[in-house]
Design goal:
The structure is a single chain. The protein is mainly alpha-helical. The chain has 23 helices and four strands. The strands form two sheets. A two-stranded antiparallel sheet has the order 1-2. Strands 3-4 form a two-stranded antiparallel ribbon. β1 and β2 form a beta hairpin. α5 crosses α18 and α9 packs across α15. It is globular.
Length: 560
């Protein structure tokens, strides 16, 4: 007798990713938690690589533009005040990224913005990377024009194409580039100031009495201080690029605790100490070169470098300065392109539920940056950065407020939850604070509330974000941080337990515990990326239906 029983349906095939998206040596866990197994660099190596990315010379141009516009006293005060704000907000963010192995976007999701709320900050961060890529690329094109006679329009294209091979290969290649170029950069950075110390020592004193080129005067002006601080604060989103490296910091242990803390402090908020020094140094070099090259060229870092080196190097001053500028700009623009690809990946994966691979978004980021360069955005430096800082500071301060205030007061979970399976689409605490603060400050920036409010619009953005984030979290009783409890990996476990792997029921790849969620739709564990890309589940896990979920074995939980 023939058995007519119906054979069971074959299991659906495991999800497979495109070749580039599946290669983590290039992807660098662009949309997910960086596992301990991948964090093979020591604290010093990670910190050195992160700090190598701040070699950029936009600091020179920014510092010079501030001091030229508002004079030395107001300009220097503005640069130092902005540095203090950036340093303080950067400390909790850097520690969170290094501790949890998460980039800025994933931290933002769990620090008061929600799963889709942070898509707006992904765009803010992406715009930071392509705006500054364009600024740095313009500086590099100016150097190539002076050194080789290359038309700047062609130089823009060269500066864009030259970084692609390095960024394509990911963190490993970036670490090598930063290490190999560091000696040249350090010599090039210090040499002009050494020359001027011997050849023009009187210029240092004269600089402190400089009243600017627009009649601001050498005395202190609150208006000049406010406007100058706003321009300098445009760099506040740089902590996101530092975080892209800090997420690869190894686990903190009793043996490496001191080195770990120092590395995170130096590579995280510590970048701004060097950054502020570069802004003041760039302003000084531009001041010394002002009479010889004129205001326009003094704001282009290549010209002051040449003038400073000429007494010692003579005819070699031009090639030496060009080499320094080109090396500096390559060091920063590989970071800008890399971080931009991460941010675009995070944005489009949530909007389209597709992930072709981080490397494809390199071309999107560079295409936008090239367009900005061809439009000569360098000429609009001060106004553009002043506007951007209103949005950037509202975002960063809201995240820092959640990490420092909300978590300590118990208004938000004690750990960073970044997975779609546990988050509301929008959390009004951080997202609402950022939107309100940036809206009010932008209106002030365009003069709606008068000159003083226009000058201090970035302070308004920071103050409103700092107050509104905990206030909204308190008013909503922290309701919108977690859509459901995380019974799988909760508020931290021992490192040995974290590194235990579980196999995703969708892509059938093993991932460490923090990257796994329990999924009712799949009736099993699911990795964070497969969860993000699922467009058919209807978010059943967040709608009160935990039936069918397979709860993974939980180790003994201890706060880390």
């Amino acid at each position: 007798m023939t058995d007519t029983a119906t054979a069971p349906d074959p299991a659906p095939p495991a999800r497979s990713y495109a070749k580039l998206a599946a290669d983590e040596s290039r992807e660098d866990y662009s949309l997910r938690y960086a596992p301990h197994a991948f964090r093979r660099w020591g604290p010093g190596t990670v910190a050195g690589t992160a700090l190598g990315g701040i070699a950029y010379l936009a600091d020179f141009a920014i510092g010079a533009s501030i001091v030229f516009a508002y004079g030395f006293t107001s300009g220097a005060a503005a640069i130092l005040a902005a540095a203090a704000v950036i340093f303080l907000t950067g400390i909790p963010i850097a520690r969170a990224c290094a501790t949890y192995g998460l980039d800025m976007d994933l931290v933002t999701r769990g620090a008061g913005f929600g799963y889709f709320g942070s898509t707006l900050t992904s765009l803010i961060y992406a715009s930071f990377t392509f705006i500054f890529f364009a600024l740095e690329g313009s500086i590099m094109a100016q150097a190539m024009h002076q050194a080789f006679g290359l038309p700047v329009e062609i130089g823009y294209l060269v500066t864009t194409l030259i970084v692609i091979p390095v960024v394509f290969r990911g963190m490993g290649a970036l670490a090598k580039v930063q290490a190999w170029t560091q000696p040249v950069w350090l010599v090039g950075l210090a040499l002009p100031f050494l020359v001027l110390a011997f050849e023009a020592p009187e210029s240092w004193g004269a600089f402190t009495h400089f009243g600017g080129t627009e009649g601001a005067g050498a005395g202190f002006s609150w208006i000049g201080f406010g406007f100058g601080t706003g321009i300098a604060l445009s760099l506040i989103a740089q902590i996101g690029e530092q975080a892209d490296y800090l997420r690869f910091m190894p686990a903190r242990t009793a043996e490496n605790s001191r080195r770990w803390n120092l590395a995170v402090l130096a590579a995280g908020p510590g970048w701004v100490v060097i950054g502020a020094a570069k802004q003041l140094g760039g302003a000084f070099l531009a001041f010394v070169a002002l009479e010889a090259v004129g205001r326009t060229h003094a704001l282009e870092p290549i010209a002051p470098q040449i003038e400073a080196l000429r007494p010692w190097l003579g005819g070699l001053a031009l090639p030496a300065a060009a080499l320094f500028v080109i090396v500096s700009q390559i060091k920063i623009n590989v970071t800008n392109a890399y971080s931009g690809s991460l941010s675009w990946s995070n944005f489009f994966s949530r909007v389209t539920h597709r992930h072709p691979g981080r490397v494809w978004y390199i071309f999107l980021n560079l295409g936008i940056a090239l367009t900005l360069m061809e439009l000569n955005m360098f000429a609009m430096l001060g106004k553009l950065l002043g506007f951007y800082s209103n949005v950037g500071i509202a975002w960063i301060v809201a995240v820092a407020a959640d990490l420092v205030i909300n978590k300590r007061l118990g208004l938000s979970p004690p750990y960073i939850e970044f997975k779609r399976a546990y988050l509301y689409a929008v959390n009004p605490a951080g997202f609402g604070a950022m939107v309100i603060a940036s809206t009010v400050s932008i209106l002030a920036f365009f003069g709606l509330f008068g000159t003083h409010a226009e000058a201090f619009s970035t302070f308004m953005a920071a103050g409103l974000s700092l107050v509104l984030c905990p206030l909204i979290a308190w008013a909503t009783r922290g309701k919108y941080y977690l859509a459901r409890p995380n019974v799988v990996n909760g508020p931290g476990v021992e490192v040995a337990d974290i590194t235990a792997t579980h196999t995703c029921s969708v892509c059938e790849t093993a991932y460490e515990l923090p990257d796994i969620a329990d999924c009712p739709a799949q009736a099993g564990p699911i990795c964070s990326l497969c969860c993000s890309l699922d467009a058919t589940c209807g978010d059943v896990c967040r709608k009160g239906s935990a039936a069918g979920a397979v709860v993974l074995p939980m180790p003994s939980v201890r706060r880390v």
